[in-house]
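Incident review: delayed structure delivery

Summary: a single-chain prediction request sat in the queue longer than the usual turnaround. Root cause was a stuck worker, restarted by the on-call engineer. No data loss occurred. The affected request and its eventual output are reproduced below so the record is complete for anyone auditing the incident later.

Affected input:
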Amino acid sequence: MNRKELIKAVAHEITETMVLTEKMLTSILSRIAYGLAAGDEVILRDFGVFHVRTRNARMGRNPKTGAAVKIPDMKVVKFTPAKALREAVK
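Output delivered after worker restart:
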């Protein structure tokens, strides 16, 4: 399911226009991104938790040349699904 299909399905379910539904989805996603950028966890009950972790620096290899390359620390977004979501997917 892509973004457009999601918007269409939600709009149909809540009997709203696709334009309003798209605005709501965009707003929700931007609030999630803003919270993560601020270092907060975003907890959605019965769905899961989004949080930011720091991945440690490590040595990697350039696949073209085989030369060793230092990969610096970086922040990555992690998602931990809730039990209800895991059960629904089973």
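Verification: The mean pLDDT is 95.
Action items: add queue-age alerting; document worker restart procedure.
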